[in-house]
Amino acid sequence: MAALGYFDRMRDTVGGVQVSDAAGAPVDLDSAIGRLVGRFAALPAAGAKAVIVGNGGSAAIASHFATDFSKNGKVPTLAFSDAALLTCISNDLGYENVYARPIELFGKPGDLLLAISSSGSSANILTAARAARDGGMEVVTMSGFRPDNPLRSMGALNFYINSDSYGFVECSHFMLCHLAIDLLTGAWPEHGDRDSETA
């Protein structure tokens, strides 16, 4: 059946996630997720915050998990998705700077940027990652498509999905983010509380 084949491929895709560090060395997935969760958990006590950016479906992921990490995880987290901000910056400074400029304005050393791009080659996400690094922020990336995509080399941790399908890459990124928030809040491996879910 087509549906079962689709879900089998989705399972294989997310099960094959690869993680590398800033030097390109492989990192065990459990270790990488543990480091990511630990980094989020440490932000409030340090007076720091997280920023999540993406385009299209990845922007929806950014907004969703900015809400989850803030409300459920009690970690101050932003997604620069306000329409006035997006249109102002892109109109005045070019779309490649639509996230970089807010990061320059609101980011500070010790903050964390989670940069999400299915292709790993979106100019505005690459510019955002450079702005974050220049500002002393730590960068974590999630990408897919080509294994040599430029975003994959820009983070302290780089989660890569080996697929050229937007749907499989986006769903895998979504699941990784949900895994992180569920571990942070204790919803996994225990059963989560329905009241803590985002609509």
Comma- or semicolon-separated keywords:
disordered C terminus; alpha/beta; about 45% helix; about 200 residues; about 15% strand; globular
What would you say about this model in short?
This protein is of the alpha/beta class and 199 residues long. It is 47% helix and 13% strand. It has a 6-stranded mixed β-sheet, sandwiched between helices.
What does this entry look like structurally?
This protein is α/β, with parallel strands linked by helices and 199 residues long. It has helices at 2-15, 29-42, 57-71, 83-93, 100-106, 123-134, 166-185, and strands at 18-21, 50-53, 77-78, 112-117, 138-143, 157-160. A six-stranded mixed sheet has the order 1-6-5-4-2-3, with helices on both faces. Strand 2, helix 3 and strand 3 (77-78) form a beta-alpha-beta unit. Helix 1 (2-15) packs across helix 7 (166-185) and helix 2 (29-42) packs across helix 7 (166-185).
Draw up the topology in text.
Blueprint (H helix, E strand, L loop, with lengths): L1 H14 L2 E4 L7 H14 L7 E4 L3 H15 L5 E2 L4 H11 L6 H7 L5 E6 L5 H12 L3 E6 L13 E4 L5 H20 L14
